[in-house]
Amino acid sequence: DSGVTQTPKHLITATGQRVTLRCSPRSGDLSVYWYQQSLDQGLQFLIQYYNGEERAKGNILERFSAQQFPDLHSELNLSSLELGDSALYFCASTIDPDSYEQYFGPGTRLTVT
Amino acid sequence: QKEVEQDPGPLSVPEGAIVSLNCTYSNSAFQYFMWYRQYSRKGPELLMYTYSSGNKEDGRFTAQVDKSSKYISLFIRDSQPSDSATYLCAMVGGTSYGKLTFGQGTILTVHP
């Protein structure tokens, strides 16, 4: 168990809908990362937050947004969902914002029908 | 073309075999090279990391980096059924060391 928690574990929704994925980092970690894992694209970095501020951005669609709250938990919002958004979404956390040793949560499996 | 290329396999070997997993990359800025292991229905976990070129050994695992060829490898000796997982190479460098770039992952099955 990495100490990173993600909810929900599974999410099934329809195209055009909006969902929110939640992540709680390990105790003491200030940085949160979001990744998308799909069969065709592999594991792709979406966005990083450090102590409430956006630090780095990857291949995140404009329909997706994220934020990190004062208690350090983070939420990833996905809107106007498309079939292609079906994937595993992972959150990871670290103390140091430049650490390559990232601790991953168990993921949220999103299915868009 | 992807920055990091990794053969997705799948790779199936008998218990006790030596396993070789590889990745190639195109970005010369990469400086840290990692191998993550992902069991089914779990998140990835860091297995090993190497800075720049060279070898690193940890028990049955050896990581190699050849920056001149932009090629990294992970060797698993005396493979066990518990090694069955997806192995992802990851790299980082340049301006943001938190932004990992992953390979596609290789699915490994070690059968008794």
Query: The biggest beta sheet of chain A, please?
Result: 7 strands, mixed
Strand content of chain A: over 45%
Radius of gyration of chain A: 13 Å
* Strand-residue proportion of chain B: over 45%
- Helical content band of chain A: under 10%
Number of strands of chain B: 11
Give the number of DSSP strands of chain A: 11
Mean pLDDT of chain B: 93
Biggest sheet of chain B: strands, sense, closure? 6 strands, mixed
Oligomer status: heterodimer
Give me the secondary-structure category of chain B: mainly beta
**How many helical stretches of chain B?**
0
Query: How far do the termini of chain A sit from each other?
Result: 31 Å
- Give the overall form of chain A: globular
Distance between the termini of chain B: 37 Å
What structural category arises from helix and sheet content of chain A? mainly beta
Helix residue percentage of chain B: under 10%
Helix-strand pattern of chain B: EEEEEEEEEEE
Could you walk me through the main structural features you see in this protein, from its secondary elements to its overall organization?
The complex is a heterodimer of chains A (113) and B (112). Chain A is an all-beta fold and 113 residues long. The termini of chain A are far apart. In chain A, 0% of the residues lie in helices and 53% in strands. Chain A contains no helices and 11 strands. In chain A, the strands form 2 sheets. In chain A, strands 2, 4, 5, 6, 9, 10 and 11 form a 7-stranded mixed β-sheet that branches. Chain B has 112 residues and is mostly beta strands. In chain B, 0% of the residues lie in helices and 62% in strands. Chain B contains no helices and 11 strands. Chain B has strands spanning 4-6, 11-14, 19-25, 30-38, 45-51, 54-58, 61-66, 71-76, 85-93, 96-102, 106-111. In chain B, the strands form 2 sheets. In chain B, strands 2, 4, 5, 9, 10 and 11 form a 6-stranded mixed β-sheet that branches. In chain B, strand 4 (30-38) and strand 5 (45-51) form a beta hairpin. Chain B is globular. The model of chain B has no long low-confidence stretch (mean pLDDT 93). The interface between A and B is medium-sized, with 26 and 22 residues.
